[in-house]
């Protein structure tokens, strides 16, 4: 068993990583303590993974950073210098340019060189690029769903981009992290639905950069669902002509183990993907008026975070890509 | 106290009507029994409203039908013949034409004359037309939110209709009624979100007819939220020019007691309108790219059903429109 | 309209007070700002109650303190000195003795004289004592339900106290207050149930003191429900003889406007009391084995806090006790 | 891979069985169609288990019946005659005597011989008895938690049985099955808590029979939680003397892979056991007054149904007991 580290294991993505790696046949998770939050109550006979104080010198082949962006930029250089591969789950290395980072994260990026070096780890679209890299930037949850839904159609050229694309996104509360706040308190969230970051979400520039869309072509709004986990995006656009959208997905994703396409008239819901690494897609197309709707669902903590990170780890360490994920 | 009847009082809209009318200063609800479903457990000293077996001859000035459309079309003629005014909360009299009704409700409308006679009771846009009428068709929940959000902008001519309007709607489960079904079972709904009637909801023709939009201009999808009540619609469109959308709403709704507009950067959530007759509206507009988002929230059982019905009753019986609703 | 003040209006009990008082025919709420937390988003045409910076010299006839106990003990003396009546919703003045307060609140009580002076405002059992008092200690939520369920039976002498009484209590999350914490975060609470303060809740000494039970006679455990509001207590005991428990309740509460007793085999649930000042009680008794179960339900924010406080205010200011509460 | 059958695979316990068996290294689930309910929407590339029309002649080594009791009594004889082992998840074979069955299930048991033959499959207390048996009656969800919490203490003789034991049980909605009903409709359950079968639950005779308690010694009430899955029972009793209850559990369950005991002052919640086959136990004991509380938590669909059934299957087919369950 190869030991791999998790920094930020007490957060929701970190805990999901611990869970997935504990069932992985070839690696063993090691919890790296670094400003960790309070533990859960544990039974007397609880035996969790090994724990170590974080240090770049832990000598691990690979470390996951399930940390805020400012912690990721702080810890990454030392790890890379020590020869440890890094899979970063934050937004620290996703936006490509220092200008983008400055605008959306309101901070100067301390390591533009690493920003440029990082590979954006969306295996379905960059599988070959991951293995050699030492720094993998794990995609954001909303952009993962949006890219997996939009890119096959953009590549096929069937979307009328001038008419604009609407992505109405809904997420469970775990996407906001484990740090207590009024916005994620039970009483504020239950029996409620609220829109936030309307047209201004920091995941928008990530979607634009990775999909090739430009700002005027995409309207994106996020909404907070009263559930623990799951992202559902309802994507609206107009088609250029009378194409079979389902067939485009089926062809593009024929060999993808984590992509599932629904038959005409059927749509995925969040239960279908909960606690899985699947990304499910359903399509409605009114050929007469060229209006189309794509419904895409993932588990934000799995395909949208920890599961994707394990997929990237499998690529980075040379295991079959689905190991520990089916 | 004027007695007014409720048929369908055991359903969710009917129960909300009973609740609202019990606090109304000028009328007294009378529960009219007609195929009613099972009662709740009641305390020994419970004293609810009077109950009568339904009959067109009950001699009431006004009856609310919180019933399925086929029951509404069955009961309405007798009531009208007996001189009783009817406020119907079903879709029986909303679609204007027999063709529309046939297409969306899969039944031949038995009384085209009444379909033509009924006034569509959205007081903010037809206040003057209600008082004289004997048959008021209470608007559907989704169309109420959509019309209150869209019509001021359509009237002002600021929406680029050719670019299309997207209405992404989310509703609490009470909107599906009280009849048990797998789709509304707790285990199927909790921790879930599902899209349904994608581009094909029977509320779409109602929105089109009442807003003046045509089918190619509007894409509408409904989604089932794991909450009891509330509708939030996120509406996307492009503007014709650099207008102040908030000001249009403020001007149009200045004297409307139930419409509330949010300041720039703020949006209503469902808690803001729960158990009220308010319709709350927030706006985001990116002037540079002409992209705009309107977030509109109502309580589907109040402004989207029973509250609106009481508003219509107040108009029909000559009380101040807000009586019993603030 | 008599102005009455609310300190702590941004908390859940305070907001419920604002809501109730806004519909009261004889008083007008005034929000007294004192370390208030962040506001909700408000529409442009929002008109809430008047706001004032808190001062003992506000000159109000009565002030509600919906504040933590240490704030209540700090603010109360100045208000009383200024001739303002105080209804305190915290535990500051509930426990009768400084020893009790020291043990359960881990602080020395700064004003033993006021602790002794305060009247415990459970109107169903001390109605006559409230009107003359200047300091009313509003009961805790769990003790309210427990006392209303147990005291009629204890007074009737039908409970076998030596065999012990079990009170298994469940509460919605609003009972824990609005301050963000991991324990009340959505993701931690949803799809969960957790026991806390097992046999050691600080409401136990309040129940013991007010019911006359002694510590060895009562076992109390609290549990956190994944809901916003409501307390349901399931109370188990053995009877001394073959009595009709329902009849005891019916007789004792015959003239109580807020107590409702269920017929044999029926039990209240939390929906029955949500957003009301009712306390509902159902009973099961196996005469053969003398085992009995009482199920009691209240809304923790209404009958368990703000509603009871308004009931006490009505008594204190000379209005009919149910004013603004039915 | 050994094929094993599931009848009732569309129910919640059946679906959990399918899920568990799909990850089992030695068996392969076969879905046996017999009055199955509607399927979920499935993606185009969905590949579920094999399906067969149910017949006693399917020739399987073992079949799980996740069916109502009357279906289980109908199907069991044919399966046994065909040489197929049966693990029945219903109450059909749990109550030991025809009198018990008649009283609690309101039907005459058609096969008293099989009722007598069935082994009650609670492995922690009957491990040795399972392997040779052809009919295994899988325990009920509430009795599983109650027995695992109570039997070590009853065996140790530390409970004052004359003072009575209270078991206050709370269950998620999946325990009520997948058949739609008003009681399990989302709107009726959310933001609610309701008691049912107070002192009269049909799981009580199962607990009595298997624990050796008598009716006068146990008070049991069930409550419906607004969550999908999980059972938490809060059990109150008096101890005979000043014993260390935690140590009794630790000693009794030292070698049990699925039992976990919490340290003093810590208690399990439902998240700790969700989607696992663990049974977690926490204890509070006030030595001075002899009052004790035990909090026990399981997942009703796993340890309380499908997981336990797989544990029994492992014993019956000769696999290590934890196979496919950790």
Structural summary, described in words:
Four copies of one chain form a homotetramer. With 326 residues, the first copy, chain A, is of the alpha/beta class. The first copy, chain A, folds into two domains: 2-138 and 304-317, Rossmann fold; 142-300, Dihydrodipicolinate Reductase, domain 2. Chain A has eleven helices and 14 strands. Chain A has helices at residues 12-22, 69-81, 98-105, 112-117, 123-126, 141-156, 186-189, 204-211, 245-252, 270-273, 302-317; strands spanning 2-7, 27-33, 50-53, 62-65, 85-88, 119-120, 135-137, 165-171, 194-196, 218-224, 231-238, 259-261, 279-286, 291-298. In chain A, strands 3-2-1-4-5-7-6 form a seven-stranded parallel beta sheet, sandwiched between helices. A seven-stranded mixed beta sheet of chain A has the order 9-10-8-11-14-13-12. In chain A, helix 1 packs across helix 11 (302-317) and helix 6 packs parallel to helix 8. The radius of gyration of chain A is 20 Å and the shape is globular. The model of chain A has no long low-confidence stretch (mean pLDDT 96). Chains A and B meet through strand 8, strand 9, strand 10, strand 11 and strand 13 of A and strand 8, strand 9, strand 10, strand 11 and strand 13 of B.
């Amino acid at each position: 068993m190869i030991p791999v580290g998790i920094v930020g294991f007490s957060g929701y993505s970190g805990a999901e990583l611990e869970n997935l790696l504990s069932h992985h046949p070839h690696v063993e998770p090691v919890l790296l303590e670094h400003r960790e939050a309070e533990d859960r109550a544990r039974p007397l006979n609880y035996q969790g993974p090994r724990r170590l104080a974080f240090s770049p010198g832990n000598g691990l082949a690979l470390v996951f950073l399930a940390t805020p962006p400012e912690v990721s930029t702080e810890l990454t250089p030392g790890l890379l210098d020590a020869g440890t591969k890094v899979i970063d789950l934050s937004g620290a290395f996703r936006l490509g340019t220092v200008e983008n980072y400055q605008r959306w994260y309101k901070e100067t990026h301390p390591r533009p060189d690493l920003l440029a070096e990082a590979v954006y780890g969306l295996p379905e679209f960059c599988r070959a690029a991951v293995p050699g890299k030492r720094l993998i930037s794990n995609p954001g949850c909303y952009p993962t769903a949006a890219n997996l839904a939009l890119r096959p159609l953009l590549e096929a050229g069937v979307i009328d981009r001038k008419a604009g694309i609407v992505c109405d996104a809904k997420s469970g509360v775990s996407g906001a992290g484990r740090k207590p706040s009024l916005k994620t308190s039970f009483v504020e969230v239950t029996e409620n639905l609220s829109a936030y970051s309307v047209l201004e979400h920091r995941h928008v520039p990530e979607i634009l950069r990775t999909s090739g869309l430009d700002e005027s072509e995409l309207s994106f709004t996020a909404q907070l669902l009263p559930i623990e986990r799951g992202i559902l995006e309802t994507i609206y656009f107009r088609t250029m002509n009378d194409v079979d959208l389902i067939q485009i997905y089926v062809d593009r994703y024929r060999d993808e183990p984590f992509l599932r396409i629904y038959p005409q008239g059927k749509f995925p819901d969040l239960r279908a993907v909960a606690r899985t690494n699947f990304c499910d897609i359903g399509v409605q197309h009114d050929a007469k008026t060229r209006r189309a709707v794509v419904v895409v669902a993932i588990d934000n903590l799995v395909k949208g975070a920890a599961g994707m990170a394990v997929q990237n780890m499998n690529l980075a360490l040379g295991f079959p890509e689905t190991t520990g994920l089916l």
